[in-house]
Amino acid sequence: MEKPQLRIAIEGCCHGELNNIFKEVSRLHQQNPIDLLIILGDFQSLRSTADFCSISIPPKYQKLGDFHNYYNNDTWGPPVPTLFIGGNHESMRHLMLLPHGGYASKDIYYLGYSNMIWFKGVRIGSLSGIWKQWDLERSRTEWSQLERNRSWQKNVRSLYHVRKSDVIPLFMVREDVDLMLSHDWPNGVVYYGNMQQLLKYKPFFKQDIDKRELGSPISWQLLRELKPKWWLSAHLHVKFEALIKHTKRTLNLSDDADVRKNNDEIALNLSSDSEEDVPSTFQPENKDEIVLDLSSEEDTKQVQKPKKKKKINAAKETKFLSLDKCLPRRKYLEVINVEADTSHPSWQNAQMYWDPEFVHNLQYMEKNKGIMKDTPLEQMNWNHIIRESGFYDRDIDWSLYTVPNYTPGIQRRENEQTKLFIDRFLT
C-alpha cells in the first residue's frame, strides 16, 4: 500500500516578492491542493524602512517589498502554510530576534539559524545563511550591541554567514530526514547533475567548479552524513537538479557502545560513511580530527553491557533541487511530492512540531558549550559525540513539542516567541 504524499511547493529566492509568489501558489493550489510552501532564502522580511540599515542591498536598489503588509496586518496570510529560511539578503534586525525560529506573520514561519521540524508527517531540516570559512568559528555580534551602536551596516554581511553553533545540532542528527533546506548549494552536488547544461546558462561558474568552490563544503558534508531524501537550495538563481547515490549507512550508536577513548586518541574519520559517494574532484575532510571526551571521570570507570542499538536507515539517494528567483519566465517555483509518515502525531492533527532529537542536540550543545566553542569543527568526531550525548527519551510527550498555533500579533512579539522556546527547552 502506497504511503500518502504531501504536495509541497518549493520557491527559490524570494527578494520580497511575496505577493507574486502567493499568487502563483494560489493558482496551483486551486488546480490541485498544496499542503505547504517552502521559501529558500533572501526572504527580505523588512518590517519598515528602519530595517534597511540591516540588509545587504545597496541603497539605490532598496525597496520595502511586500512583507511589511503581512507583518503589520494580522489578517494578511499566504494561501497555504509557509516556511522560510534565511539567505544572504535578509533583514537581520528582524530575524536575529528569532534565532530558534518563529512566526514572521500569519502562517509564515521562519526556521531560525538551523532547525528540524515536523509538518504533516514530514521531517524538515534547515540551515540558514551562506558559507564563509573565516566566520565559521566566530560568534555573531549580539542584536543589542548592534542596535545600541548603530553598527548594523558594518556587520551585516558577517551576520549572514553560517556558524559552528548552527551546524553542530544538525551533524548530531541520526534519524531519517525527508527534506533538508539550505540557501547556498552543497559544493559537491554540481558533479552529480548536468554540469554542461549548467555552464551554458552560467558560464562564469566554471572557475569555481574547477576549484571545487561552487557552494558550501559544510553543507556537502551534512548531505553525506544525513542522506536526506531531498536537499533543496537556491542562491545561484538557476534551476539545477542532481541525484546523489549513497553508500549504505548503518552505525552502531548504542548509548554505551564501547569503552570511552583516551583523550589523546586521534580519530581518523570525521564522516560516518565511506568515500565511495564523494565526487572525484571533491577533497576529503581534515584527517587531524580529535575525539571530544565530554563524559565525567566517573562515567569512564566502568563499561556497561550494550543496550539496544540504533540503526540509521537513511535514504539510498538524495534528490537535489535548486530554483531561480521570483521573476517572470524564470524557473523559481516547483511542486514536489513527499511521502508522509502517518504514524507521526503531526499527520493526525496537521500541527507543526519541534523535533525532539534536534532539541536534545541543542540541549547537549548548551550543556557542553565551553568545550564545543573551544574545539574547531573539523576536529569533532560526530560518532563519538552522538554516543556521548545519549539517546533522547523516546517516550515523548508530544504536547511539549507542539509549535503553538498562530495568534494575532504574535509576529510583533519576537522576544516572547524566543523566550518561550528557551524557557521550555534550554533552561
From TrEMBL:
<protein>
    <recommendedName>
        <fullName>Lariat debranching enzyme C-terminal domain-containing protein</fullName>
    </recommendedName>
</protein>
<dbReference type="GO" id="GO:0007124">
    <property type="term" value="P:pseudohyphal growth"/>
</dbReference>
<dbReference type="InterPro" id="IPR007708">
    <property type="entry name" value="DBR1_C"/>
</dbReference>
<feature type="domain" description="Lariat debranching enzyme C-terminal">
    <location>
        <begin position="303"/>
        <end position="425"/>
    </location>
</feature>
<dbReference type="InterPro" id="IPR029052">
    <property type="entry name" value="Metallo-depent_PP-like"/>
</dbReference>
<dbReference type="GO" id="GO:0045292">
    <property type="term" value="P:mRNA cis splicing, via spliceosome"/>
</dbReference>
<dbReference type="GO" id="GO:0005634">
    <property type="term" value="C:nucleus"/>
</dbReference>
<dbReference type="GO" id="GO:0032197">
    <property type="term" value="P:retrotransposition"/>
</dbReference>
<dbReference type="GO" id="GO:0008419">
    <property type="term" value="F:RNA lariat debranching enzyme activity"/>
</dbReference>
<dbReference type="GO" id="GO:0005506">
    <property type="term" value="F:iron ion binding"/>
</dbReference>
<dbReference type="GO" id="GO:0016074">
    <property type="term" value="P:sno(s)RNA metabolic process"/>
</dbReference>
<dbReference type="GO" id="GO:0006401">
    <property type="term" value="P:RNA catabolic process"/>
</dbReference>
<dbReference type="InterPro" id="IPR004843">
    <property type="entry name" value="Calcineurin-like_PHP"/>
</dbReference>
<dbReference type="GO" id="GO:0030145">
    <property type="term" value="F:manganese ion binding"/>
</dbReference>
<dbReference type="Pfam" id="PF00149">
    <property type="entry name" value="Metallophos"/>
</dbReference>
<dbReference type="GO" id="GO:0008270">
    <property type="term" value="F:zinc ion binding"/>
</dbReference>
<dbReference type="Pfam" id="PF05011">
    <property type="entry name" value="DBR1"/>
</dbReference>
